[in-house]
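Quick one: structure for this chain?
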Amino acid sequence: MKRDPLRHKINPEKPLSAPIAAERFKGEVRYWAHRLEAEPGQIHLVRLSRKWASCSPHGRVTFDTTLLCQPEEVRREVIIHELLHLKVPNHGPLFSALLRAHIGVGKASLGVAARRRGVT
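Got it. Here's what it folds into:
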C-alpha cells in the first residue's frame, strides 16, 4: 500500500507482528480527541486503499484498518493529524503548526523517542 509521504512524515519501518484490537485503537482516538478538545461524531475503521485516514466536514473520522498493525508512533501521528482536521480543515500554516506542536506533546507524554524515525 502506497502512502503519501508528504502527509505523514513517519514511514513505518516494521509492522507489528499482531494487530491491536479495534476497540483499543478507538480508545486511542478518544484519548487524543479529549486531549485535543476535538469532538469526532463517529469513528470508523475500514479498508482504505490510498491513505491512512480521512475526516468529513460532519465530524466523521475514518481510519484504515492497516493502522491496527502499525507501531504506536505511526498510529498516534495519523490520529492527531485527522483529529486536528476537525478544527482546521486544510493543510495550511496553522494546521502545520498545530500538528508539530501536538506531535511533540505526544512524544513527550508517552515517552516515545520518535525523533530517531525522522519526525521533527
